[in-house]
Design goal:
Radius of gyration: 28 Å
Low-confidence stretches: none
Strand order of the largest sheet: 1-2
Order of helices and strands: EEHHHHHHHHHHH
Shape: extended
């Protein structure tokens, strides 16, 4: 940018200063914020004060227990085990096959049944029984998901037919760790929170069916145990929740 002075000398002015002032003013000027919400409001069945008092009481009792009880006593309490009884792998396979059959029926209901999420059983089972109910049961009764998941039974049948072993044909790099499961969990969260219609039975059936097929092929390639510990996000997540349970299953299949 330039201009002439009284003596006729051309004076050059930096052209970037007006641009910097314009950008700074646009950044500093207040603008309306656009909010987004995709969930409906929830009606509380009890007065709000009951929830506030109950939550505050639970937090206060938790801090009181942690403050009064010695740390080593709490550690001994949570590590104490009482041997109960053992389950065989044949029962686990049978329960998994029943779970897979129920899952297949739900996928068929989502694809060919009613498009109303309130009358179709698939959204209820996925978002309520699985995502909320199984999570709570895992934290109380232990790793139930290792019995209910719909991959153990089909994988064992396929491994016998094709002669595959538990280790699979390929090995995952150690540096991957649980990152495949983390990425798949992010994809699941994206579908639940960002997708415009996660309750739509057909869309949910397609997503759940593709995830089951992808996981099953990954288990055939990398082995059931390896992929369940590194790539299948439901098994990884539910196994973490199960550590809070009052019972657990050891390597010999015995409940303790």
């Amino acid at each position: 940018m330039s201009g002439r002075t009284e003596g006729g000398v051309v004076e050059r002015r930096p052209a970037g200063i007006p641009l910097i002032c314009l950008v700074t003013s646009l950044i500093l000027l207040p603008t309306p914020a656009l909010a987004h919400a995709s969930d409906r409001g929830h009606v509380l069945l009890l007065p709000t004060g009951y929830y506030l008092v109950g939550g505050a009481f639970a937090v206060a009792i938790s801090f009181l227990v942690l403050a009064l009880l010695p740390a080593n006593r709490l550690d001994r309490f949570w590590r104490r085990c009482l041997p109960l009884f053992a389950f065989g792998d044949a029962l686990r396979t049978a329960i998994s096959l029943i779970s897979f059959a129920g899952f297949a029926i739900l996928i068929a209901a989502g694809l060919f049944g009613s498009r109303d999420p309130l009358s179709n059983p698939l959204p209820l089972v996925i978002w309520t029984l699985l995502w909320a109910g199984i999570t709570l049961l895992q934290g109380v009764f232990g790793d139930l998901w290792s019995w209910l998941n719909p991959w153990v039974g089909p994988w064992r049948l396929a491994s016998r037919l094709f002669g595959a072993n538990d280790e699979g044909g390929w090995r995952l790099p150690r540096w991957l760790g649980c990152w495949p499961a983390v990425l798949l969990f992010f994809a699941f969260a994206w579908f639940e929170l960002i997708d415009p219609a996660p309750d739509d039975p057909a869309r949910l059936a397609l997503a759940a069916g593709l995830y089951w097929l992808f996981t099953f092929l990954a288990m055939l390639a990398f082995g059931h145990r390896q992929w369940s510990r590194s790539g299948e996000f439901l098994s990884v997540l539910f196994s973490m929740v199960a550590r809070f349970a009052i019972v657990e299953r050891d390597e010999n299949g015995r409940l303790a």
